Amino acid sequence: MNSAACTTLKTRARHAYLITALISIALIGIATVVAYSWRLHLPAQIAAHWNAAGEPTRTTTFIGFMLPWWIGGLLTTALFTGLGWALGSQAMIRKSIAAVNIWAGLYFGSLMLSGLWFQRSLRDGTMMNLNSALLGIPIVISGVGAALTWFLIPGDPPMPTNTPIPENALRVSLPSNQLAVWHRQVSGRNALIMVALCGLLMAALAHWMNMWIMWVLTGLIALTSLAMLSFVVRVDAAGLTVRSVLGLPRTRIPLNEIVRASVAEVNPMGDFGGWGWRTGLGGDRTGVVLRTGEALKVERTGGRLFFITTDDAAGAAALLNTLADRARG
Predict the structure, then answer these.
(1) What are the residues whose beta carbons fall under 8 Å from the beta carbon of 87, sequence distance 6 or more?
(2) Looking at per-residue confidence, does 38 or 88 come out higher?
(3) All structural domains of the chain with their residue ranges
């Protein structure tokens, strides 16, 4: 059953990667057709680069303006499609890669059109100063498209098992009629300090450039960082639930998909390539990795692994195994 489910997941994932990659390429193609229809209304020399003050520093031809966006969009799509193919088919990977593919097509396509729209009917591209709308419109469009894609891509199908938890797994003494809950809030203090410093630098840059879109980006980065670096972890009769303090992202592992829970030592860079909600090389493991050291390790049906760095990982593992035993009757 698990083998068939894994094959189905892999097929679904590859379909999602290929379809969203084709959509991304199509979006860039549509933007190119629209841009070409404007060519007679554009200056001979189009502004293509601006300094921090928003003043144009380089102009180029129509093709010269379009080329970086074509390359950027196609390379980003190809890179992340290949990355998804290599990392595997778990829900987080599948949703993330599909969302990035759609983001790439919308972002590079709309940035291309936004840069040209504000130069229509100008005699010279040097008359075009950088403004917040030029940057803000592509950010909003691509962000909304990526978010919708994330929610539209389906998660993993249920893969329940009746196989008993191994006898040597950690357990806690718990009468059959007694309820129990294990609860922790975990965060990466060092990573949060680094994020705070980056936020201050972004705020200083936004103040210097005097552009509202930079303040919006600063706020978005701060919210995203908070969502990725502080989590609530709960073990109860529903299984394991891990969610950001903002509510999203979140994951829930039901008791009937738990093969075994244990304690593991985790190195964020060595095992996952960084901090936050991560996936390991090979795609068989995901985790919320906020520090080096003790982590709760959950082996799931379908050969999937999930890690969460936390204090008292042994207590969480013991309760999870015990509740999973109880759920199996």
Answers:
(1) 93, 97, 279, 281, 282, 283
(2) 38
(3) 2-152, 182-327
Q: What is the DSSP letter of 319?
A: H
Residue 145 has pLDDT above 50, yes or no: yes
Query: Domain 182-327 is of which CATH architecture?
Result: Roll (2.30)
Tens digits of per-residue pLDDT, 216-230? 766 777 777 777 778
Between 264 and 212, where is the model more confident? 264
pLDDT of residue 6 exceeding 70, the answer is: no
Contact 228, 276 (CB under 8 A): yes
Tokens of 169: 């797994």
> Could you tell me the pLDDT band of residue 87, with boundaries at 50, 70 and 90?
confident
Neighbours of 179 (CB within 10 A): 9
Contacts 24+ apart (CB under 8 A), 210-218: 211/54, 211/130, 211/131, 211/132, 211/135, 212/132, 212/136, 213/132, 213/135, 213/136, 213/139, 214/132, 216/136, 216/139, 217/139
Distances (CA, A) of 99 to 31, 132, 234, 279: 19, 24, 28, 16
Least confident of 47-61, 78-92, 160-174, 202-216: 202-216
Q: Per DSSP, what are the bridge partners of residue 185?
A: 232
301 within 8 A of 257, measured Cβ to Cβ: yes
The DSSP-derived string for 100-152 is HHHHHHHHHHHHHHHHHHTTTT-S-GGG----HHHHHHHHHHHHHHHHHHHHH
User: Do residues 58 and 48 lie in contact, with contact meaning Cβ atoms separated by under 8 Å?
Assistant: yes
Q: What is the pTM of this model?
A: 0.76
Task: Give the phi and the psi of residue 93 in degrees, each rounded to 5.
Answer: -65, -45
Distance of alpha carbon 49 from alpha carbon 51, whole angstroms? 7
Reply yes or no on whether the pLDDT at 135 is more than 60: yes
Contact in structure between 313 and 295 (CB atoms under 8 Å): yes
d(CA 20, CA 94): 11
Q: How many CB atoms are located within 10 Å of the residue 327 CB?
A: 17
